[in-house]
Specification:
Elements (H helix, E strand, L loop, with lengths): L4 H23 L4 H23 L8 H18 L12 H5 L1 H24 L1 H28 L4 H20 L9 H24 L5 H22 L1
Helix pairs in contact: 1-5, 1-6, 1-7, 2-6, 2-8, 2-9, 3-5, 3-8, 5-6, 5-7, 5-8, 6-7, 6-9
Length: 236
């Protein structure tokens, strides 16, 4: 297998996670408390990827681009309302539109796919850890996509098309890494690091902790711990 194909495959797995998790609401009604465990665990894995693998791969001079990534996705979320409410609290008029937050999620998927690829090019271990955190994060995102579009009155075929389009944007984003000069790889990784920090700390953690639950806290810590253990194991 060509070296350049591995990050694309990792991004493809992220897309499949989005697609498959988006099918869950069609066949199974999720309990709210159960989804909070998933969201908390996803937040833990993203923060674990940031603190244990992504930040160490950067330099102090990259902090500017981390800030750019953080505030860019803050503005993107405010404009499209992605990740801005839990699966059971999306009741605003903006969320009834349905497609706008989905488009925001889709643009985020391109950046995540690109981030997986450049992280792998910088260090294969970093790419694997970033891909793992994205794959886990896509579970609540895929569920949210389906629920938002169902509330917007979209039929099942339209929702399936949206899920499929979201899924293919990951490998599409990863493919863009072929056009990125090597000198820009760390800049992109820094921007994605800011994205991870914003999503995990500003969206996922508050959503997971809308109600106090010790098990959710455990899920967050477990997610970060698994990333640390995996990283340590792969370094052996």
């Amino acid at each position: 297998m060509g070296f350049e194909m591995i990050p694309i495959l990792l991004a493809l797995f992220a897309g499949l996670s989005d697609l498959i998790s988006g099918l869950i609401p069609f066949y199974y009604k999720l309990d709210e408390s159960y989804t909070r465990y998933i969201i908390g665990f996803a937040a833990g894995t993203m923060l674990g990827a940031v603190f244990f693998e992504m930040l160490p791969a950067l330099t102090p001079g990259d902090s500017f681009y981390i800030g750019i990534g953080f505030f860019f996705f803050y503005l993107l979320e405010r404009l499209t309302m992605i990740h801005s409410c839990g699966e059971y609290e999306c009741t605003s008029e903006v969320h009834r539109i349905g497609w706008l937050p989905v488009l925001g999620m889709a643009s985020d998927n391109i950046i995540d796919g690109l981030g997986i690829a450049v992280a792998y090019l910088i260090n294969p271990l970093t790419g694997i850890v970033v891909a793992l955190s994205v794959i886990i994060h896509e579970i609540p995102q895929g569920i949210t996509t389906t629920l938002l579009l169902e509330r917007a009155g979209q039929a099942k075929p339209a929702i399936l098309v949206a899920l499929f389009l979201e899924a293919i944007l990951y490998p599409a984003g990863a493919s863009l890494a072929a056009f990125v000069p090597n000198g820009f790889n760390t800049i992109i990784l820094a921007i994605v690091t800011g994205d991870f920090l914003y999503i995990a700390a500003s969206d996922l953690l508050p959503d997971a902790h809308k109600k106090f639950n010790v098990k959710v806290i455990f899920a967050v810590i477990l997610g970060a711990l698994i990333v640390y253990i995996l990283e340590s194991f792969l370094k052996l």
